[in-house]
What we know:
The chain is mainly alpha-helical. It has helices at about 5-35, 40-70, 80-85, 90-135, 145. The radius of gyration is 21 Å and the shape is elongated. Residues about 150-160 have low confidence and may be disordered.
Amino acid sequence: MPMGLSEASNILWRQRHLLELLLFKLDVEQTLLAAGRLRWLARATNEVEMVLDEIRSIELARAVAVDDVAASLGLGPGCSLRELAAAAPAPWDGILTEHRSAFLALTEEISVVARANRDLVAHGQQSVAAVLDLVGDGTSPSPFEVARPGAATARRTSPLLVDEVV
């Protein structure tokens, strides 16, 4: 039995909720970084990773739901949310368009905050390296000279939050 528009929309709502939660967790991480409150940074980063795992899981359900609805509307698999909205009857066309707009806005906000967090981490690493250079004996390289700058945050350079079909 094909999944209906209502079920697909419910999955999209869940995905939107997770993206909003990710944005919140990234904001918390940014606040900790900016305030120099490193005690809780590992926990905040772990929470970001947990939300990302949930987003990856729901992405599969979203893809199946969209493909199922697309087939019932005469569209091919892998169609975009824009194409789905164009083919859907009212009021679903507006609901799907709203989901798409929200995904685009949230993805942009998340990218901005994630980029700022990476910058804060890089600045913090540079500050620590400078202090270590001042107090070090000069015989061993600092861990920041050995490690590639930004490597700690490379895993989240641009999280795949909503695939290209949006």
